[in-house]
């Protein structure tokens, strides 16, 4: 049983080989599978939320429906919507309809559910899914979008135990940082599998290691915890190797003794024979080594001085300029990272550079010796019944066989699979039986088989275990060709990228001469400045709106001296001819209904205002200043509407108090 392990109550698995059983362990914790032996004990009535690597939803359900379904107030909101629709259809509702609406409203109020829909939309927006995606059926979304919908739904449910399988896949850095803040702020007990070292250190208080069928819990987290884990594992494996070596030395002596004993005396030394069997088991208990990947097999095509030139390259998608006027002359051995929020065109840029998407404008020119390999986010289709080796041979491009010959291609496929941690004994395993990380390594093997000297990598660390991620880093460190990569893994990008292409959604590809850490620091500074500017603009808009209302109020026209502090009831403080202190008025039926709904309406409008403020700050950070200005105007209008509702509430409250 896993329980709280620190302030955030996080029990985390971080560094096991693909296929070691990480996803199976999570399914056991979530109660989706039952153990073959032993038991999983949970607190009575404890709720468990689970994010699988694939989201499955009912046909026709929208993204917002899926997110709302995880909230305790979802059923009450649906009942309230149904009661409201019934009243809208019937122009003369009876007492039963009004009572149903009152009951539904009371239940929503008790569950604090008025803001649930706004919070759900805000969660989707923070994960890069705007209103256009929120209202679309889940079946029409991409794999990455479905995954983010599942993550938003798991967070909205606010369970006692949250189980996440690779939660950062398909998220950009801004969304990952938002997720970190959510997980650490709510204090939920968390169990997750992740390959993102920075995310793991920010979110977790302990590390659960699976190693050759055994589990080892390391009770530390926070910054530097991954390095501490690696050191602890190294020391444990060294002790295990020393113990096995000592057992082997003793085993040789015991083997000689066993051979010398007459068969008739076997009963007299039964205990020693049993000890011999235990000693044999200990001698075989050697630690498993880390995955070691080297760039080899087919080798690398020699690279000339001219690698790849993009001149005025552009591409439109659905009438929008995603990439425009991109010019770059790639140099041999360059290491470039591509960064930007989801939807800004990172994958489209790689498609254009790889030649996988036709240019809408400009030109693309390859050098004579250039050989490009493109590792896409989506793995290619797999034929029914294909094994690792047969699939790899099918994926080998024509240029590979032309360069190496058919038999050499087969030999290279075997070598590359082995060097990617897939041993020869498993080469005839069906691809359908592989884990997600093993399939990813198989896809990488197909890319390397072409002897590339230019590697284009789109989220290469997705579904890889941490050992394989580190092995991939070592592979790229030894690769002499040009590398261009898109990745949300901050530690991976910090190790690989020497300069960056920055995309902000306006079609322009900006070159950033600096490391990934320097870019993140600059982005944080820009975000803080944009948020401060948006707040200042909103404050100024509110001030101007209040001055305008004060100047145009009837009281201001009659008494200019009172314009700065108008009365709430519009009477200018008179005791006659209005709702002055000398008259005690009661609320009418309609006023009572209005008063009862105003507080919830003000809260709802406040949630919308907060969401607008967050979107305005995000737009300013991404460089979309036109959108930021439009959102700033909407924010000012929202503030003005809240002020008006608040004034009306105060007016009705005074009447209600008499």
From TrEMBL:
Pfam families: ABC_tran, ABC_tran_CTD. Residues 531-581 are annotated as: Disordered. PROSITE patterns: ABC_TRANSPORTER_1, ABC_TRANSPORTER_2. This is ABC transporter domain-containing protein. InterPro entries: AAA+_ATPase, ABC_tran_C, ABC_transporter-like_ATP-bd, ABC_transporter-like_CS, ABCF_ATPase, P-loop_NTPase, Val-tRNA_synth_C_sf. The keyword ATP-binding applies. Keywords: ATP-binding, Nucleotide-binding. Residues 570-580 have a biased composition (Gly residues). The keyword Oxidoreductase does not apply. Residues 7-237, 308-538 form the ABC transporter domain. GO terms for molecular function: ATP binding; ATP hydrolysis activity; DNA binding.
């Amino acid at each position: 049983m896993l329980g709280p392990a620190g302030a955030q109550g996080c029990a985390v698995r971080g560094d096991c080989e693909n296929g070691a059983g990480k996803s199976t362990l999570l399914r056991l914790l979530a109660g989706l599978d039952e153990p073959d032996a032993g038991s999983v004990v949970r607190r009575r009535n404890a709720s468990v939320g689970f994010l699988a690597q694939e989201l499955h939803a009912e046909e026709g359900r929208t993204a917002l429906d899926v997110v709302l379904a995880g909230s305790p107030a979802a059923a009450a909101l649906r009942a309230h919507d149904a009661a409201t629709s019934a009243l809208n259809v019937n122009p003369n509702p009876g007492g039963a309809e009004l009572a149903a609406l009152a009951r539904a409203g009371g239940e929503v109020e008790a569950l604090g559910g008025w803001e649930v829909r706004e919070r759900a939309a805000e969660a989707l927006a923070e994960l890069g899914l705007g209103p256009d995606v929120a209202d679309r059926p889940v079946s029409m979304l991409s794999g990455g979008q479905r995954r983010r919908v599942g993550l938003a739904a798991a967070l909205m449910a606010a369970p006692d135990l949250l189980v996440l399988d690779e939660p950062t896949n398909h998220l950009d850095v801004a969304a990952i940082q938002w997720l970190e803040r959510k997980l650490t702020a709510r204090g939920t007990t968390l169990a997750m599998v992740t390959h993102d070292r920075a995310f793991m250190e920010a979110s977790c208080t302990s590390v659960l290691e699976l190693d050759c069928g055994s589990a080892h819990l390391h009770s530390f987290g926070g910054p530097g915890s991954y390095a501490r884990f690696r050191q602890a594992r190294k020391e444990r494996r060294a002790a295990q190797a020393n113990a096995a070596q000592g057992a082997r030395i003793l085993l040789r002596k015991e083997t000689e003794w066993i051979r010398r004993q007459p068969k008739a005396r076997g009963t007299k030394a039964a205990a020693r024979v049993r000890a011999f069997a235990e000693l044999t088991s200990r001698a075989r208990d050697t630690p498993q080594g880390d995955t070691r990947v080297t760039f080899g097999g087919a080798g690398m095509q020699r690279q000339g001085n001219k690698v790849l030139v993009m001149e005025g390259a552009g591409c439109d998608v659905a009438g929008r300029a995603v990439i425009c006027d991109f010019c770059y002359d790639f140099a041999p051995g360059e290491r470039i990272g591509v960064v930007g929020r989801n939807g800004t065109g990172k994958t489209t840029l790689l498609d254009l550079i790889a030649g996988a998407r036709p240019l809408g404008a400009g030109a693309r020119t390859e050098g004579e010796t250039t050989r490009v390999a493109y590792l896409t986010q989506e793995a290619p289709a797999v034929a029914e019944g294909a094994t690792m080796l047969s699939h790899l041979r099918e994926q080998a491009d024509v240029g590979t066989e032309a360069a190496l010959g058919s038999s050499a291609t087969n030999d290279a496929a075997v070598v590359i699979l082995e060097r990617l941690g897939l041993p020869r004994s498993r080469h005839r395993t069906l691809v359908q039986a592989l884990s997600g990380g093993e399939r990813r390594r198989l896809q990488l093997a197909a890319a390397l088989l072409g002897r590339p000297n230019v590697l284009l990598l789109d989220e290469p660390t997705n579904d890889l275990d941490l050992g394989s991620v580190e092995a991939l880093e070592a592979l790229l460190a030894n690769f002499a060709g040009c590398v261009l990569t898109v990745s949300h893994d901050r530690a991976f990008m910090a190790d690989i990228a020497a300069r960056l292409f920055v995309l902000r959604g306006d079609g322009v590809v900006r070159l950033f001469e600096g490391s990934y850490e320097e870019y993140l620091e600059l982005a944080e500074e820009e975000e803080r400045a944009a948020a401060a500017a948006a707040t200042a603009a909103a404050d100024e808009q509110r001030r101007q709106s209040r001055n305008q209302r004060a100047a145009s109020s009837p009281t201001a026209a009659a008494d200019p001296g009172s314009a700065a502090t108008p009365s709430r009831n519009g009477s200018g403080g008179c005791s006659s001819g209005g709702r002055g202190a000398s008259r005690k008025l009661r609320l009418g039926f309609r006023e009572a209904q209005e008063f009862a709904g105003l507080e919830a309406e003000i809260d709802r409008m406040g949630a919308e205002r907060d969401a607008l403020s967050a979107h305005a700050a995000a737009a300013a950070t991404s460089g979309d200043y036109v959108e930021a200005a439009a959102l700033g105007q909407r924010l000012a209008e929202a503030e003005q509407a809240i002020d008006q509702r608040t004034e009306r509430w105060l007016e009705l409250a005074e009447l209600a108090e008499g």
